[in-house]
Design brief:
The complex is a heterodimer.
Chain A: E1 2-12, E2 15-25, E3 30-34, H1 41-48, E4 56-62, E5 73-76, H2 88-93, H3 103-116, H4 132-145, E6 150-154, H5 162-175, E7 182-186, H6 190-196, E8 199-203, E9 210-215, H7 226-256
Parallel strand pairs in A: 3-7, 3-8, 5-6, 6-7
Antiparallel strand pairs in A: 1-2, 1-4, 8-9
Helix pairs in contact in A: 3-4, 6-7
Chain B: H1 35-52, H2 64-77, H3 79-111, H4 113-126, H5 135-142, H6 147-171, H7 174-182, H8 187-225, H9 230-239, H10 243-271
Helix pairs in contact in B: 2-10, 3-4, 3-6, 3-8, 3-9, 5-6, 6-8, 7-8, 8-9, 8-10, 9-10
The chains are: A alpha/beta, B mainly alpha.
Chain lengths: 257, 275
């Protein structure tokens, strides 16, 4: 199943946030969206996931979702969005309660998602008892439980410390390795983008327009090897040079506001 | 290669050292478990001593022992249970009615644009009215029986409940609602599984307020027009200068308020254990 951004524009009142953004996320592909602060990355993701109606253009799906997918477009949120009154298990089970699955099937999918994210021993724990990294693992387990075709990840690591970010990045790489699931990964962190994405959509300063789409010159499995590290850094530097001046302007704009 | 220099507690400098002054004290008030009870016991003991030593006129301030004796006599005669029974009945029915309507209207205001625009205007206009001022009007409308007293309590409880409920609904983190929507969770299930538990802390905090409002209104209403009830009893005792009986009624009201507070505290512990 492909996800298409078809000439999407969006305004909040008089404030123009996105302008004619178009690109396609092919089945199993990981597309990162980067750009300076305030360029509309998260707004674009909300539109792609159907949580916000665009002012013009639209998000479209092409092809059937994979068999057994209960929620083809599934979000992983920056602030985890866990129900604080529910245990880890109940949080993961939450989206399944409103599907046609039987209780036994629900339990099996929850168990599988908890196992894949290393949370089996924490199923009876409440979110407040968990570290930030573990809470985001619960968010990922909840997303995996509905067998998504495309994960919509809105800066999923930005609220975490650098060590936890590294550990979760390894988890993302592992989960997305087989290409069964695609992802749209919104981030301001260029290192995360070059490590995870197949293609990187660079947005301009507000109103966000597609400035460039960078295709990564190596597979994700190759990126861990020493010989490719230099190349990876070069791509990251190229991306930074693309957005640096606009990032400075955006920062000044925020400070002036 | 990491340079691991040996750690030393202090440099070998001969200059005199002094500790950094601690500046972080205060602003963290703690609650002693027995402090309050000890203070209460001391006040009661001093009060008793002052009464026994005839430092205060027992007509104006009877001793704690005299009040206890009055409560015992009231309990033994059955008058206490009769008055308490009427008050409890009025509070119970009035509070339940006010709470049920308050929760329904509060949720409607929290979830519907139409209900919000209409409801907030009405609540803002009617909430500041002292509800006891409506009792004469309610007597005209509903007669002189139990109905106007119960309606006064229900009205007082309704407004506070509605406000605490829609404030609680407003305070539910929007990201949780968006999360549920992103999983195609139906509206009713979002209300039941996300908004209700998310608003519960505010609703239970509202219960504390409405319990006090109900107690205040039942006493006021019973003082205005009732034969039985703690409020009526306190007023009668005051008219007859039976200050030990009057204070016995006040102590019973205080104990009743404490019991309700404790009950709501237990509810909070049970329902909000996740906080």
């Amino acid at each position: 199943m492909d996800l298409i951004a078809d000439h999407i524009s969006h305004c909040f009142g008089a404030l123009e946030v996105l302008d004619d953004v178009s690109f396609t996320v092919r089945a199993g592909e990981v597309v990162a969206i980067v750009g300076p602060s305030g360029c509309g990355k998260s707004t674009l993701l909300s539109i792609l996931g159907g949580l916000l109606q665009s002012s013009a253009g639209q998000a479209e799906l092409r092809g059937a979702p994979p068999a057994g997918s209960l929620n083809p477009l599934t979000f992983v949120f920056q602030d985890f969005a866990l129900l604080p009154w529910s245990t880890v298990e109940a949080n993961v089970e939450f989206p399944l309660l409103h599907t046609p699955l039987s209780a036994a099937e629900c339990r099996a999918q929850v168990d599988d998602a908890l196992r894949r994210t290393g949370l089996t021993d924490f199923r009876a724990t409440y979110p407040k008892q968990l570290s930030g990294g573990m809470r985001q693992r619960v968010g990922i387990a909840r997303a995996l439980a509905v067998r998504p075709a495309i994960l919509l990840m809105d800066e999923p690591l930005s609220a975490l410390d650098s060590q936890t970010r590294e550990l979760l990045m390894e988890d993302f790489i592992r989960l997305l390795a087989d290409g069964a699931m695609g992802a749209v990964y919104v981030t301001h962190n260029l290192e995360e983008a070059v490590r995870l994405a197949d293609r990187i959509v660079v947005l301009s300063r507000r109103p966000g327009r597609v400035r460039e789409v960078v295709t990564m010159p190596m597979t994700r499995s190759e990126r861990g090897s020493a010989e490719w590290r230099g190349k990876l850094l070069a791509v990251q530097n190229d991306l930074w040079s693309l957005i640096r001046n606009e990032a400075i302007d955006a920062e000044r704009e925020v400070q002036d506001a | 290669m990491l340079d691991r220099a040996p750690q030393r507690a202090k440099d070998d400098v001969s200059a005199e050292t002094r500790p950094v002054a601690f500046r972080g004290a205060g602003f963290v008030p703690g609650a002693s478990r027995f402090g309050g009870w000890i203070a209460l016991a001391v006040v009661i003991a001093l009060w008793q001593l002052a009464g026994t030593a005839r430092l205060v006129n027992p007509l104006f301030l009877p001793t704690p022992l005299a009040i206890c004796r009055a409560i015992y006599q009231l309990a033994m005669s059955g008058a206490l249970w009769q008055h308490l029974g009427y008050s409890l009945m009025r509070i119970g029915i009035g509070w339940l009615l006010g709470t049920a309507f308050g929760i329904a209207v509060g949720f409607a205001i929290g979830l519907s644009t139409l209900a919000r625009s209409v409801g907030i205007t009405f609540i803002s206009a009617l909430f500041p009215i002292p509800k006891i001022a409506l009792l004469p009007l309610l007597i005209l409308w509903l007669g002189i029986g139990e109905e106007p007293k119960i309606a006064t309590i229900a009205l007082g409880v309704f407004f506070s409940t509605a406000i605490s409920v829609y404030s609680g609904v407003d305070a539910v983190p929007r990201n949780l609602i968006r999360m549920a929507q992103s999983f195609n969770v139906p509206f009713a299930a979002i209300v039941r599984r996300v908004i209700w538990p998310g608003a519960l802390p505010s609703i239970l905090a509202g219960f504390r307020i409405t319990a006090s409002v109900a107690l205040l209104l039942v006493v006021s209403a019973e003082m205005i027009g009732a034969e039985y009830g703690i409020g009526a009893f306190v007023l009668q005792a005051g008219n007859l200068m039976q200050t030990d009986q009057l204070l016995a009624g006040v102590v019973i009201l205080s104990l009743f308020g404490l019991a309700i507070g404790k009950l709501i505290g237990l509810l909070e512990t049970r329902l909000l254990h996740w906080r």
